[in-house]
Amino acid sequence: MGSNLPSTGITAMLQEQLADNQVSPTQAGGTPFLKFDAKRTGEWLFGASGEPVTEDVFSLDLESLQHGYIQWHAKKVNRRMAPINKPLPTPQDPIHYKDSRGRDQTDEANEGRALEGTFADGSRFVFETNSFGGRKAVDKVLGELFTRAAERSPFLWPHVRLDSNSYEHAEYGEVFEPVLTVVEWYDEEGNAEGGTKRVAQDKPAEDPVKQKRQRKPAKQEEVPDEEEQDASSDADDGSDEAPAQDPVKAPAQDPVKAPAQDPVKAPAQEEAPAAGRRRRRARS
């Protein structure tokens, strides 16, 4: 598995390194967002297309870790964030207003977390959350990270898997929670903890990212395609292939036997199957 861990050159205390960094509040800046669908599916979704990436693994960018307050009002977000080794910022003032029915409403700021990560193909994302479940998932990883930093472990760069959990709520039914599971820790040289194998760094690239991230939806669209079924139907007996069995499948079922039985006999009789074979090669 390739590694996209940041080469910041630190092996000492993580807190000391982060204290020297001036990390601005996360504003995405064109980087796709990672979201968790807590209401319907319990899936992790990547980018504007909402590609499911549950169980994908990413490398965590340590310098992107932030905490603070996130406030939503009139479909606009107001962030007040700071690096995780800095004090928690002061929350925004509540916004009082009346809704379309004349009822009093208040939009308050909720404590939030923000981070950036990189998938194995080099595609980056931003994840922000101000929900209780989201904060709990991020704080679990932070707890492990701070323990390692306090112990002066050189393995401070985690690879994290996107998981989920659910429970039955008495009022709302099934409720989904995001889960971030650390699957491996690396040092600044890219070596995995517990082994001597050096992990090569991948180069982030725009084009490979787009191809990889479009692959999952493309597979779903190509399943009913006739050419895709023909290419993968050698071991299947799907009913969709019945019309194509006479011209194409007959010679394909016995690719060795047919030529061996009659290498010279009646060339005119073999023209139709031969044409069928040519068509199959062209379609594959």
Which structural class do you get from the secondary structure elements?
Answer: alpha+beta
Percent of residues in beta strands: 25-35%
The helix content is 25-40%
Poorly predicted runs are 1-10, 18-28, 198-212, 217-284
Rg, nearest Å: 27 Å
Distance between the termini: 31 Å
Got a strand count? 11
Mean pLDDT: 74
Count of helix runs: 8
| Biggest β-sheet strands, sense, barrel | 6 strands, antiparallel
What's the number of domains?
A: 2
Give a written overview of the molecule.
- The structure is a single chain.
- With 284 residues, this protein is α+β, with helices and mostly antiparallel strands.
- It has eight helices and eleven strands.
- Strands 4, 5, 8, 9, 10 and 11 form a six-stranded antiparallel sheet that branches. Strands 1-2-3 form a three-stranded antiparallel sheet, with no helix packed on it.
- The radius of gyration is 27 Å and the shape is globular.
- The model is unreliable at 1-10, 18-28, 198-212 and 217-284 (pLDDT under 50).
